[in-house]
Amino acid sequence: MLRITLISAGTLTLLAGVGFTSFYAGANTASTTLTTAQPEMDMEMDPMMQAMMQAGAPGEQHKMLASAAGEWKAHTNFMMQPGQFEEGEGVMTSKPILGGRYTHANFKADFMGMPFEGFALNGYDNVKKEYFSIWIDSMSTGVMHMTGQMKGDTIVFYGTTTMPAPMGEVEMKMEVTHPDNNTMHDTFYKKLDGQWVKDGEITYTRVSGGHDAHKKEMHGHADHDG
């Protein structure tokens, strides 16, 4: 489902480098050794700064994910047991966060007669060149992490999910398509006995939102949003 802020080691390295550079630049009473080292450090920092900025800049992939901003009706159809599917209805709200670098999607429905809620954090990693989706919900205590690539007009995600015994870890696949601006479709598969088996699908129909809902975010207004 186009579905704690961590500071990466690379970011820490960058911050440390900036701190040391500032220290050396302000040390007017420092020795000749420190003074002569300053230009070399500046030259080394420039490409690092550029690489970090490029790695953190939202691009076309992020804009595509942010196009899901808004409120959606959801029609679900999931396999309860082999050959038997159960239909249901739900709602999903999606919004871009952190300057459009990620999208946060909150999903609510009734599942097997019980209220169900989950949310996804979706994004595109500029460094790894891959999409990702992180999912948690009210019927588990684990986290499902999937990574994917665009294949034609479909994002295909792969990952694993932990099921109760005796199934244990199960390989998962999710295909995400946008037939038009007001429709999204997720199809889920799990691998059983070496074969991909369709596990369910969700069709989303837009209620509100669209381009205007995420335009402000993509232009940097919400870099303070969490």
CATH class of the largest domain: Mainly Beta
Strand content bin: over 45%
Biggest sheet record = 10 strands, antiparallel, barrel
Q: What value does the Rg take, in angstroms?
A: 22 Å
Overview of the structural elements:
- The chain is an alpha+beta fold and 226 residues long.
- It folds into 2 domains: 9-55; 61-218, Calycin beta-barrel core domain (Lipocalin).
- Helices cover 25% and strands 49% of the residues.
- It has helices at 9-26, 32-55, 60-66, 211-218, and strands at residues 70-81, 84-97, 102-111, 114-125, 130-137, 144-151, 154-162, 169-180, 183-192, 195-209.
- The protein has a 10-stranded antiparallel β-barrel.
- Strand 9 and strand 10 form a beta hairpin.
- The radius of gyration is 22 Å and the shape is globular.
- The model is unreliable at 1-38 and 212-226 (pLDDT under 50).
SSE order and pairing:
Elements: H1 9-26, H2 32-55, H3 60-66, E1 70-81, E2 84-97, E3 102-111, E4 114-125, E5 130-137, E6 144-151, E7 154-162, E8 169-180, E9 183-192, E10 195-209, H4 211-218
Antiparallel strand pairs: 1-2, 1-10, 2-3, 3-4, 4-5, 5-6, 6-7, 7-8, 8-9, 9-10
Helix pairs in contact: 1-2
Keywords summarizing the entry:
Lipocalin; 226 residues; 25% helix; single chain; alpha+beta; ten-stranded antiparallel barrel; disordered N terminus; 10 strands; 2 domains; 49% strand
